[in-house]
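INTERNAL TRANSFER SHEET
From: sequence group
To: structure group
Subject: HTH_Tnp_Tc3_1 domain-containing protein

Please process the attached sequence and return the structure record in the designated field. Keep the field labels unchanged so the import script can parse them.
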Amino acid sequence: MPERAQVDLMVQLNMSVSLISARIHRYRTVINSYISDPVAYGTSKSTGRPRKLKQRDERNVARAVPNTMKSAKDFAGPYNSSRAFLASKKIKVLDWPACSPDLNPIESVWGILTRSVYKNGKQYNSIFELKDAVKAEWSKIHPSYLDNLSNSMPNRIFQVIRKNGEFTSY
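Return from structure group:
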């Protein structure tokens, strides 16, 4: 028996939405959506990227956060920092300011690329569409822009030193 017919029959038998959702293994919101408008059910297109957390999980996090004195360090496990983890694995790293997009010119490229790929709130229906859009926008970046970024490194370094590692105009 098709799923919609099952729901219709269970509604006629005055079964609760919770029971219906448990029997056919669908969320209650899906069942409510179908019951409220069976003709329009399933016709609307997704509005974009799916949520990472369900609304119930977001509410639980919002409730838990004010009631705890734990910090991010309490959840870090045996390593309290990336440096500690890398050191434990005997990986040598260069000294680099913690927040230094000023010293990493590719961050400027990613910013331009992101703004152009997602301009006007554009969303993509598949990874392939997104890849094509990124490739198209990447090909539009003029090589002279990349040269200017590379040539700006001495000035970037000078400004970071002058501002003792604080934010710069870059």
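Handover comment: Residues 101-162 form one domain. The chain has a mean pLDDT of 80.
Transfer complete.
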